Amino acid sequence: MVIRYPNGRRFTKQGSTNKQVPNKQPTYSNRGMTLEEDLNVTNQYYLEQSLAVIHKKPTPVQIVQVDYPKRSAAVIKEAYFKQASTTDYNGVYKGHYLDFEAKETKNKTSFPLQNFHEHQIEHMKQVKQQNGIAFVILRFTVTDEVYLLDAEHLIQFYEQKEMSRKSIRKIDIEKFGFLIKIGYHPRIDYLQVIDSVYFQEESTR
What we know:
three-stranded mixed sheet; 11 strands; 5 helices
């Protein structure tokens, strides 16, 4: 089956190459996992520990070619990933709705605003209007630093794009955001930050 991105490029599953990968000692700071993989593992831990129910939203797919070798069976021959209309993750924690996007960059001193789409910004605005908790989780891959930035600040920076702002400076993310502790179980404990930022008056986990 052929799956393509919206720009027509073929989808290739990561890790499908036969190239030899050097055997490295695993560490907490760098295990070669993407931010998405780390968050999925983290969310699974939260679910198993009955702490929160948070899932990654499935990427919508448009099917363009289907074969029917049998009447009772259909084989998808070609499909395209469609651009998601909202953010990456959502769920419930302590009775509150959480909605967030996760992005990473190789830049050392700034985070490109082009990584975000207008429809995602509008979606986060709508979530906040309904008193939901909306934020982004940002990773600087070179230093393996992960920050939680409330959507309010992201929206403000994004709206400055019209005034030639191309990125969010790392010093501003450090100023307005919160560094997330990197560990093993959970891998990226963002609920600890949510407790301290949004639930200061509530009991801790």
